[in-house]
Specification:
The complex is a heterodimer. Chain A is an all-alpha fold. Helices cover 88% and strands 0% of the residues of chain A. Chain B has a single domain, classed as Four Helix Bundle (Hemerythrin (Met), subunit A) (Up-down Bundle), CATH 1.20.120. Chain B has helices at residues 5-8, 11-42, 58-85, 88-119, 128-149, 153-167, 170-179, 202-234, 239-248. Classes of the chains: A mainly alpha, B mainly alpha. The interface between A and B is medium-sized, with 25 and 37 residues.
């Protein structure tokens, strides 16, 4: 076996090892992406609200 | 040098400060995680006493478990600060900590299940350590549910803060569930934890401590990002947020 497949095989325990690491990567990276996405959404919504208020004042 | 800490307790000054701290903690997380995992996978033996390669779950499991307890203590501390000092930012930080703490708790349980299946032959057992950690997950979830169930943020903050403080009793129970003074009273399947490392192979111990530190730095990143979002939401009617939006155009 090549060194890479050996590494992922992990002596036959690959499933347990990578299920643990997979969950950690999924949740932690996902948490950061979600927070970033939420940040953009909030900024967009607040800017739109500010524009609407400004338009109302102009009338 | 004296720092006026109260200046930073204002959301308007904390918001840009948090923005500057995020890349700093982000890089620390990346460097520590990469270094710790490299060491843990390539500079360590394939066995930890009687355990085979699956023991490498340790590099997530321990960091996540430590953070689950530490973040709960911090969440309760900020909630208490909010109740006593009446500072808005304290409650916002407490609220921002909860989801990251819940994720850490879930990961500790999840990785523990996979580790348990390999080394004990069972995914789950109602052992004191696992049961108390599960209760911690429910406490985080209860805190978040209570926060979102009450519309008025001030009332939501106070109610959730009380829940966080009452739930604080869970943390010493988790700790003592395997580290009790009399081993005969610990009917636990879970191994005891030895902060000094016990007879653990030094390279494994180093990698474990470095990755645990990486989890801590990661928590700063996630919490600071979330606290900025909470600040924006709650301070949207203030002039400083309106000025910020003007600048961002």
């Amino acid at each position: 076996m090549s060194a890479i497949s050996d590494f992922f095989y992990a002596g036959g325990y690959g499933f347990y090892l990578w299920a643990s690491y997979g969950a950690a990567i999924f949740l932690m990276v996902g948490e950061l992406i979600a927070a970033r996405q939420q940040h953009r959404t909030i900024l967009k919504r607040l800017s739109r609200m500010a524009r609407m208020n400004a338009a109302e004042e102009d009338e | 040098m004296s720092i006026n800490w109260f200046k930073y307790s204002s959301p308007a000054t904390f918001y840009p400060l948090a923005g500057k701290m995020i890349p700093f903690f982000g890089w620390l997380t990346a460097i520590l995680m990469a270094g710790g995992l490299y060491w843990g996978f390539f500079e360590t033996p394939d066995r930890l006493s009687d355990q085979k390669e699956y023991y490498r779950i340790i590099y997530i499991h321990v960091g996540a478990a430590w953070m689950s307890m530490w973040l709960y203590i911090m969440m309760a501390a900020w909630a208490l600060a909010g109740l006593v000092l009446q500072t808005r930012l304290s409650f916002m930080i407490a609220k921002a900590i909860a989801p990251t703490g819940a994720i850490a708790t879930f990961l500790a349980l999840w990785t523990g299940a996979f580790w348990g299946e390999t080394s004990w032959g069972t995914w789950w057992d109602w052992d004191p350590r696992m049961t108390s950690e599960l209760i911690l997950l429910f406490l985080y979830m209860g805190y978040m549910a209570l926060q979102s169930a009450i519309d008025d943020p001030r009332r939501a903050d106070r109610a959730a803060a009380l829940l966080a403080l009452v739930g604080l009793v869970c943390v010493p129970i988790i700790f003592w569930s395997i580290n009790c003074p009399d081993p005969n009273e610990c009917a636990a399947l879970h191994q005891t934890s030895n902060p000094g490392g016990g007879n653990m192979e030094p390279n494994i111990l180093i990698a474990m401590l470095v990755t645990a530190l990486a989890f801590w730095m990661y928590s700063f990143v996630a919490i600071l990002m979330r606290v900025r979002n909470i600040i924006l939401e709650r301070e949207r009617h203030t002039t400083w947020v309106k000025e910020l939006l003007e600048k961002n155009k």
